[in-house]
Design goal:
By secondary structure, the protein is of the alpha/beta class. Helices cover about 30% and strands about 20% of the residues. It has an eight-stranded parallel beta barrel, surrounded by seven helices. The chain has a four-stranded antiparallel β-sheet with strand order 5-6-14-11, with no helix packed on it. The protein has a two-stranded antiparallel ribbon with strand order 1-2. Strand 12 and strand 13 form a beta hairpin. The longest helix has 16 residues. It is globular, with a radius of gyration of 21 Å.
Length: about 350
């Protein structure tokens, strides 16, 4: 068994400095909340002081309002949940006038997740949200896990050349930095990350949900009206870690915001060690609305225990497991003397 690695002697929690950076953006600590799981923030305000999280990513915003999918559109699974909300949202204009002023007053980092049905509507949405520059929006988080209606439904997030063109056009349409939320369905995720970075994205978020389904055996019907939905929660954490590690190893200078099944401070530290600069907590908010600050505190305590003074000291720090010596696997021949 490999012995634990400590950066130094154990620290007191107050000696840990949780402040971190995502590219040029400064954050007080690495814990944010994820798009789709925290709405616009106001519904969670009665449960805790939202200024205790580093920031939030809003519900996905489209150029015009969307009603979303029919019910049922969410169900629990053994290790997470499936959702098919259908990207319901108030639209860019209503977001800017009704939601953003309240968010801006919080003083936390505001990432506005956005999307479109085709390339032109993506660009339109980025251009509309540009009005939030200097009004509280730090980042536009572009969700490219959407089907391209004009190209037969293929996801923008699976073809590097398409993602590059889309990112370049959106970057040109706004003064707000763009982070691209990558699709886990891409065959070559590092190639996708490289494509969007070369097009001007300042970083990437990963991973988005993984397509799945659930069946009610008594009614013989899917548990979601749309049959399939996005799987999130602890079930996808090992996949998220693997993908973050792959992208960081290929592009160590590219900032990564990691997400996928984070429920504890140790989970968050795993994501940092895999290569993430900060993380977003998603599904866990439904069970424990104030879990973000708890994860922050757990992260600080664990870092203190391990002698880690700041997040930057461990981003992408994991080491390969040393190979087992050949002699360790050699078993004696049956009947031979030991």
């Amino acid at each position: 068994m490999t012995a634990p690695v400590r950066s130094a002697a154990s620290l007191r929690p107050e000696q840990v400095e949780l402040a971190c950076r995502f590219g040029s953006l400064s954050l007080p600590h690495p814990i944010m909340t994820a798009s789709g799981c925290f709405a616009y923030g106001d519904k969670f305000a009665p449960f805790f002081d939202l200024r205790r999280i580093a920031g939030l990513s809003t519900k996905g915003i489209s150029p015009r309002p969307r009603p979303g999918n029919p019910l049922p559109r969410i169900c629990e699974t053994a290790a997470g949940m499936l959702n098919s909300i259908g990207l319901e949202n108030v639209g860019a204009q209503a977001f800017l006038s009704e939601k953003l002023p309240w968010l801006a007053e919080l003083g936390i980092s505001v990432w506005v997740n956005f999307f479109g049905e085709d390339m032109d509507s993506y660009v339109e949405c980025a251009r509309m949200l540009d009005a939030g520059h200097d009004r509280g929006i730090d980042v536009l988080e572009m969700n490219i896990s959407c089907p391209n209606i004009k190209k037969g439904g293929i996801e923008f997030g699976t073809v590097p050349a398409v993602a590059h063109e889309l990112t370049k056009r959106c970057v040109q349409a706004t003064r707000i930095p763009i982070v691209v939320k990558l699709s886990p369905n891409a065959a070559d995720l590092p190639a996708m990350a490289q494509a969007v970075a070369e097009a001007g994205a300042v970083g990437v978020s990963l991973i988005n949900t993984i397509t799945g389904m659930a069946i009610d055996v008594r009614t013989r019907q899917p548990r979601l009206a749309t049959t399939y939905g996005g799987l999130s929660g602890p079930a996808i954490k090992p996949i998220a870690l693997r993908m973050i590690h792959q992208v960081h190893r290929a592009m160590p200078q590219l900032p990564i915001c990691g997400m996928g099944g984070i429920t504890t401070g140790e989970d968050a530290l795993e994501f940092l060690m895999a290569g993430a600069s900060c993380v977003q907590v998603g599904t866990a908010n439904f069970a424990q609305p104030a879990i973000g600050p708890s994860i922050r505190d757990e992260l600080r305590d664990l870092m203190a225990e391990l002698g880690i003074a700041r997040p930057a000291d461990v981003i992408g720090c994991i080491r390969p497991v040393p190979p087992e010596p050949a002699w360790a696997s050699e078993a004696p021949e049956p009947g031979s003397a030991s």
